[in-house]
Amino acid sequence: MSWIVKPSRRTALAALVAAAGLAAAGPAPTQASSEFKLSVTIQGTGAGTVSDSGNISCPGTCSDSYTSGTKATLTATPGPGSTFTGWSGAGCEGTGTCTVTMSEDLTVTATFAPVPQQVLDVAVEGAGSVKATGAGISCPSTCSSSYPEGEEVTLTATPDPGSTFTGWGGACAGIPTNTCTVTMSKAMEVTAAFAPVSHHLLVSLEGTGSGTVGGNGGISCPGSCSASYIAGTEVTLTATPAAGSAFAGWSGACSGTGVCHLKIAADTAVAATFAPAPPAGGEPGAGGGTAGTSGGASTGSVTGAGTGSGAGTAAKAGPTPGEILARLLAALTPRGRGAKIGAILRAHAFTETLTALEPGTATVSWFALSRSARLGAKSKPKRVLVAIGGLVFATPGTGKLELVLTTAGQALLRHSRHVSLSARSTFAPLQGQNVTARAAFSLRR
């Protein structure tokens, strides 16, 4: 016997509803990953860019998609002459980097503004120029320029030839060098001063006599013995002996006994020597003698020429021209070497010690007659200065007279096998007439 169980109406209805629901829903779906969009906007009157480590580089690419939960970091970079003033949106603020976590679509705004400009004015006084690093100031052509606020500007002052930089004024006052750096926190004014180069001239008085030295530019010594002059200034100094004194000569930047002419190019010193005037009486008489020789290589005679009264006075004067020539001619044959042209050329100069019994100037010169090598004996002889030397005795005493070959003299001797020379010596006392002696001698190869 079989049993048939009939469900109740309530149970059957529940079963039908459950079956219908399963058929409609089908299998359970899989959850997909979510992405969100990050957008960047730029605003303000300045210029700049915003970028991240991915694809955003705005302006240009100003948005990108990120997986939910990703952290995106944005960096704002101002353009030249602009400044980044800050973030807004998506919780970002301040002027640093902006970091957002992507849980929804976000928009971030970056604002840029122009950097305030400050004006730098430069003035140049004198002969020179001022230039700033980079573009901008190049005075005296461009003496004003605007720079972003806070920028450092370095200025360099350069004097023109003949001038020197004397200092800064204005915002650079007190800077000891010719380079100055200013920070443009506000409008600035700078002055650069230049002045002509000047040098000092110092005059001193020497010797046992007395006298004065005067010159243009304020020299009146003793009293005012130094002055400053602009480079290139021409100065004339005149020495005036006092009564009972004689001017013995210049030393330092000047020489001789005439007027001293200088062109100032550096700090310069000049000394004027004064000596007691010799007692009144006769002047030096003639000096004469025979030039000393050795080895027979140099021959000649010395004759004196001069005027004076009193033989005793002539004996006290010195050196006589005859003494000068005799000693220098003898110097041509040191140690029996002979007066050979080669030896003379190698020596180039000769020095002899002389003693003067009164102040004066001793001079000596050699001359030769040279014919043109091209025209031979038919050409007219040319007088060539072969050697010259001199010595100033400021006071009676001993000094060394140096005789030096001239360039023309060296050339003549270098191309000659035999040469005849005439020598002339002069002693010029401070008081009285000059006396002169002459001699003739020869040199051989």
Structure description:
This protein is mostly beta strands and 445 residues long. The protein folds into four domains: 37-114, no CATH class; 117-196, no CATH class; 198-276, Immunoglobulin-like, CATH 2.60.40; 302-444, Sandwich (Immunoglobulin-like), CATH 2.60.40. It is 11% helix and 48% strand. The chain has five helices and 31 strands. The strands form seven sheets. A seven-stranded antiparallel sheet has the order 25-31-30-27-28-29-26. A four-stranded mixed sheet has the order 4-1-8-6, with no helix packed on it. The protein has a four-stranded antiparallel sheet with strand order 3-2-5-7, with no helix packed on it. It is elongated, with a radius of gyration of 52 Å.
Task: Quickly give the structural class.
Answer: mainly beta
CATH architecture of the largest domain: Sandwich
State the helicity in percent bands. 10-25%
Question: Biggest sheet, open or closed, and with what strands and sense?
Answer: 7 strands, antiparallel
Number of domain units: 4
The count of DSSP E runs of length 2 or more, i.e. the number of strands, is: 31
Strand content range:
over 45%
Q: How would the global form be characterised?
A: elongated
The CATH top-level class label of the largest domain: Mainly Beta
Taking all residues together, what is the mean pLDDT?
Answer: 79
Radius of gyration: 52 Å
Oligomer: single chain
> Strands of the largest sheet, in order across it?
25-31-30-27-28-29-26
Tally of individual helices = 5
End-to-end Cα distance, whole Å, is 173 Å
Unreliable spans are: 1-5, 22-26, 28-32, 281-316, 372-377
CATH topology of the largest domain: Immunoglobulin-like
